[in-house]
Design a protein that fits this description.
Blueprint (H helix, E strand, L loop, with lengths): L1 E5 L11 E6 L13 H13 L10 H27 L8 E7 L3 E10 L1 H16 L2 H14 L9 H10 L2 E11 L2 E12 L1
Antiparallel strand pairs: 1-5, 2-3, 3-4, 4-6, 5-6
Helix pairs in contact: 1-2, 2-5, 4-5
Length: 194
């Protein structure tokens, strides 16, 4: 069974310029890799900026390069954190993140397994996110976090920030790839327009 939400391009074909990172759940527990998410995201951002060279004749190209680098680093870090945090650690499938450079946009794809116990809550959050104004939802999420004594790790701010600050398009595909035991794979797609 497959379900698609948001701005997901189902028949997506990669360009010739892409970067794919794969994290195996069997070598080091994924939860222990948490601190490496920022490093991986920064690597992806540095890699991508080589396709947007700066020019001393036009200093604005360096500014644009820095904007793209910052956006890619933020989005990749958030996607990796979510994939690691919500991946079903009982499943052997790897977590992947792909950065694909298109003529007019950058496409991020993360793929991970997800526990059937959290699928319904995640889908409800996606529907709320799709139906809400990103600016208002950002304020609501901040207020929720301020109300709790110890902030929780699933604030929901990452996706809202992608919409609000970067005008990104978000989409998800849920696939049940096995029934016994149930294995659900979620692919998150973020499109960042250039």
């Amino acid at each position: 069974m497959t379900q698609i939400f948001g701005d997901f391009i189902d028949n997506f074909s990669s360009s010739e310029e892409y970067l794919l990172l794969r994290f195996s759940p069997t070598s080091v527990p994924l939860k222990q890799r948490w601190r490496n998410n920022g490093l991986s995201a920064d690597f992806m951002a540095d890699y991508l900026t080589t396709f947007f060279p700066g020019s001393e004749e036009d200093p604005s190209t360096f500014e644009r390069q820095n904007e793209i680098k910052s956006a890619v680093s933020y989005i990749a870090n958030e996607l990796l954190e979510n994939a690691m945090k919500f991946s079903d650690e009982n499943m052997p499938q790897p977590i992947t993140i792909q950065l694909d450079l298109q003529a007019d946009k950058i496409i991020f794809l993360t793929t991970n397994t997800i526990s059937s116990q959290v699928v319904a809550d995640f889908k409800a959050y996606i529907q709320e996110l799709s139906a809400s104004d990103p600016s208002e939802m950002y304020i609501q999420q901040l207020e929720k976090q301020a109300e709790v004594e110890t902030p929780i790790g699933n604030s929901g701010l990452g996706y809202v920030t992608m919409l609000n600050d970067y005008m990104a398009k978000l989409g998800w595909k849920f696939e049940t790839v096995q029934t016994e035991p149930e294995v659900i794979i979620v692919t998150t797609m973020v499109q960042l327009m250039l």
